[in-house]
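Working notes for the structural subgroup meeting. M.R. asked for a predicted model of this chain before we commit to crystallization trials. I am recording the input and output together here so anyone reviewing the notebook later can reproduce the run.

Input as submitted:
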Amino acid sequence: MGKLIGAELLIFGSFLISSIAGFAGAAFAVPLTAGIVGLSNARCAVNIISIAFNSSIVYQQRKKIKLKEIIPILALACTGMMLGFILNNYIKSDDFLTKILGGIILVIAVMRILLKKEIKLNKITSIVIILISGVVNYLFLCGGIILVLYMSQRYREKDAFRGNNGFLFGVQSIIMLFIQASRGMYNQQNIMIGFCGIVPVILATYIGKIILKKISQETFEKVTYWLLLVMAIMLIF
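Returned structure, recorded in token form:
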């Protein structure tokens, strides 16, 4: 019971951050929860929650979703997920995967903290970023911290960014659900954590929406990257 409560509190806090910043929910939730129940269980539990979380975001911002634009991005991201599936067959150590995750988060956090000006992405760079986000999303469910580099330029308006991002990762989470189930990764513990976390996470989206009206999203994003930096260092060392 103690592990369940601890995991749910960490997940609630992670997705509260995500509901305000527009990304990084799983980037916090997976590694933090992994410290309690292990990486494999954390990935499965957070994936269940991600489906509910992104469904809530999509419902709230359904008028902002542009399917003609987002489907090609989704196709590229799913290609990246296939590459992640292949890579995962060769990497079996959860400890090694956790350190890789820490390294990825560290690079993204440092880059976003140090860069004062936005770097304009060309077409090739955009495609590479989307593919890599798919790989990372399959391995860790954290593709959002990479894809935000592209999506924040594609969708300048806050609600459009949140809605299209939610649709993109909601669909990927559903695909992940079937993959994880087919590989026998679900068990009583991670299913319990996943379903018990749905209501708190949906509540977090509405609390986040209220907070977002009172503070600057840009300021909160900066705080988010500093938090990611600290967490990355803890994962690596």
